[in-house]
User: Fold this.
Amino acid sequence: SESLHYVVGLDMYAPTGEYDRKDPSSLGKNYWTAQPVFALSRISPDGFNADLKLMYDFNFRNSATDTRSGQAIHADYAVGWGVGKGWVLGVGGHAFQQVTDDKGPNSAAGRARAFGVGPSVRYMNDRGWLFTAKWQQEFQVKNRPEGAQLYVKLAIPF
Assistant:
């Protein structure tokens, strides 16, 4: 329909970015991840909007530490109200839950989890350009770093 959209796909994450096995906050992970994805959006220019993206992570072995991070299920969500001229104001967040244990000699103790929530804004024009910005504060974090994030996304169809 004009207002309901969905996508099914597979994201792949390569072992890119700086990685230091002694620094748990390294930006790089030094392993591959295969991530099946399902996303559903309800888009209304002047009314209720909602987005849900479900993902499942299959992590591969980190060759520097000989460990494999556990599998995880996570979701990103947003609900908002279309205020006209392509703008939507609302609330967005995420939920993350590791569902299998890490394996290997340098495994983390316990399964990770985190939840986040905060304000969001989205703009979409009639040519399909999409801009999203959201700030989220995490809570109920376990076995992983905790903080706040600012997400910015720009999608340009071609």
Notes: The beta strands are 4-13, 33-42, 48-59, 61-62, 67-68, 72-84, 87-98, 113-124, 130-142, 148-155. The first strand starts at residue 4 and ends at 13.
